[in-house]
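does this look right to u?? cobalamin version
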Amino acid sequence: MRSMTTPLTVQLKAEAARLGFDLCGIAPARAVADGDYFQGWLADGHAGDMAPWLAKNSACRADPKSLLAAAQSVIVLGLNYYQPSPARRGKISTYALGRDYHDIIPPKLDALDHWLRQHGGTQRRAVDTSALMEKPLAISAGLGWLGKSTVLVHPRFGPWLFLAELLTSLTLTPDTPAGSHCGTCARCLNACPTGALSAPYRLDARRCIAYLTIEHQGGIPLTLRKKIGDNLFGCDYCLNACPWGRRSQATREAALAVTPCPDLREMLYWDDAEFRRMFRGTPIFRLKRRRWLRNISVVLGNIGADADLPALRHAAADADPLVAEHAAWAIEQISTLDIKTKIATMPPH
Ligand code: B12
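got this back:
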């Protein structure tokens, strides 16, 4: 029999909604069950270049008390970030179209922390980069279920949620974990062009376009460049395919509004200063110029045309071999395009 929700838990959820969070659920501050799966995933090498930071403190990643020993409850918050993608050459994934959520969410968590301190609580906040398994906690807090894409899915917001947590010394009324509603659907698995989703709930990050365009430090493997298509930063294929996301409303968070992104050709002439000036405060900023121009080159190798060749030749002469090699690859792709395709990709008069 579910215990009565304490007035404090009710008031807390109202305060979280007032601060702009779309969802707020409570999980007991207990270790999540999936620690072994995580270790196995690491051991299989599926973390790629992320292994050094994901493996650090990996044993305590499953236990919220490792971040706050006094934790009794975990407040898990969801923020809807869905918005339609702008029509432009080269796709930036939906989560990265606007300002960086790593800057938008912490002030909201601090305001909630302030509110809880007035009720005698001690808190610790976490969003994305902390050594905490956010999805299993969100499932336990009733925010949704684990999709076969390994993304948390909510019946109303679909897969389009940012997650964040406040660990607290206060004992709040836990929510009931949500059951899974994927059923026999496998649209996300079928939508992944690289086979990163080798089986339901199994993601090999090394083949994931989001990993390759954001986290991967070096050259994009030749065998995967064509499959990246026009994805410049992150990837939404498995999210867009999810039927639960089809009724998603646009985000209420103004700071997530789409920021401008110049034409791909123009950005190939940029130096570091221009890159930093344009992308400061957005998720793209952490890529730095060299990996951004790497990604642009791969996209132009896939969707570019003769008109892009002068800019690519400029990038092929770049002092940074990572940029130069990917630009040279793109020139080769465009130059070997057969005449029919060239005519087909020529911009409309
Ligand atoms: C590393 C990471 C990535 C990696 C690897 C993703 C992955 N699925 O493992 C890469 C760079 C590929 C990535 C991509 C994206 N990411 Co990311 N990422 C993370 C991060 C930092 C850690 C996730 C992690 O530990 N992965 C390792 C695997 C093994 O663990 P897991 O997926 O969490 O699964 C756990 C359980 O679910 C369970 N489990 C999972 N699968 C299975 C299968 C079985 C059989 C069992 C028994 C258990 C089990 O055990 C696992 C261990 O606890 C989290 C933040 C966090 N601290 O949790 C954000 C996070 C998951 N990412 C997020 C987002 C938005 C994305 C992208 C959508 C961005 C984009 N559009 O490009 C894509 C989605 C790609 C995808 N299909 O997952 C959000 C997801 C929110 C949500 N609604 O689920 C998070 C929570 C960040 C945030 N605070 O909002 N990401």
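The longest strand covers residues 73-80. idk if thats expected tbh
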